[in-house]
Amino acid sequence: MGLGKARSNLVEDLIKNAGGCAVIDGGFATQLESHGASINDPLWSALCLITHPQLIKRVHLEYLEAGADIIVTSSYQATLPGFLSKGLSIEEGKLLLKRSVQLALEARDQFWEVVQHTSEHRYSRALVAASIGSYGAYLADGSEYSGNYGPDVTLDKLKDFHRQRLQVLVEAGPDLLAFETIPNKLEAQACAELLDEENIQVPSWICFSSVDGEHVSSGESLKECLDLLNKSNKVNIIGINCSPPHLIENLISKIKKLTEKIIAVYPNSGEVWDGRAKRWLQSDCCEEEFEDLVQRWHKSGATLIGGCCRTTPCTILAISKALKRSS
């Protein structure tokens, strides 16, 4: 068995050990802010890699305690151009990217060292997914929810944007790669081709954003995007993140008909990000509703479920309890 196949089995084994559905963690920036971190910055939560690295580790531990089987690194908005804009060197930027993975690995290992010797059977040894945010996340203008990158953004430009960050994150040794909030077919193609070009052996997911429950955020069809990704043996998992909870069940049903790959969903709290005003618009969704929703999502075909922006460890605890109870 090749290394790539053996590593891809990590996810399948995790899902099996978790009772048929593993739990992804929740909103990172939300939790950092709850502890007093100021992240009103183009780097967003990645700013804490510079200012409060131990706070990042604390948040990882809080999600592990809540029952997360997969923790996602704080590198969503961490990019080398972004670090350069802060006056850091390329090498300093690379070290910060690696730090995002190292902090998550340390938290996972520290947590596992404690719980593996207890009678708490609801915990599995968690996997660490290195977050790779979309080009729109770097732009910090809300375009990860529109897919409108403009005519100057080509396939090659997107590959060049992601390539070095991908290389650095892989070197740091995560269990998984998480391409997140991908809003259009072009960027999905760039990510998939890049995994091939770099011969990446780490299991990967590509999760799209959607604003209507029918298409990816650009308005392109899910079928077009998934037909593309189905051809890649480097993309192991396909799904939706940072989209409203009420859209998820329909999206899972559509994805289930279009792919045999593992399906991951981790919606936001239902609040909508206003990219221009830089604020969240309120939602009525709560932890109790998530308990009901996640069981329906699992029945529809999702086997990796968690939360994105504005969800908290309380949300993840509710998800974990609901899934463990139904397994």
Q: What do you see in this structure?
A:
Strands 1-10-7-6-5-4-3-2 form an eight-stranded parallel sheet. The model has no long low-confidence stretch (mean pLDDT 91). The protein is built from 13 helices and ten strands. Helix content is 48%, strand content 13%.
Mind sketching the topology for me?
Layout: H1 3-17, E1 22-23, H2 28-34, H3 48-51, H4 53-65, E2 70-72, H5 80-85, H6 90-115, E3 127-133, H7 135-139, H8 155-171, E4 176-182, H9 185-197, E5 204-208, H10 222-230, E6 235-241, H11 245-258, E7 262-266, E8 272-274, E9 279-281, H12 287-300, E10 304-305, H13 313-326
Parallel strand pairs: 1-10, 2-3, 3-4, 4-5, 5-6, 6-7, 7-10
Antiparallel strand pairs: 8-9
What features would you highlight for this structure?
327 residues; alpha/beta; two-stranded antiparallel sheet
Helix-strand category: alpha/beta
The proportion of strand residues reads 5-15%
Please report the number of helical segments. 13
Mean pLDDT value: 91
Major sheet summary line: 8 strands, parallel
> What oligomeric state do the depicted chains represent?
single chain
Gap between N and C termini, in Å? 30 Å
How are strands sequenced across the largest beta sheet? Answer: 1-10-7-6-5-4-3-2
Q: What series of H and E elements makes up the topology?
A: HEHHHEHHEHHEHEHEHEEEHEH
Helix content: 40-55%
Give the strand tally. Answer: 10
**Shape label:** globular
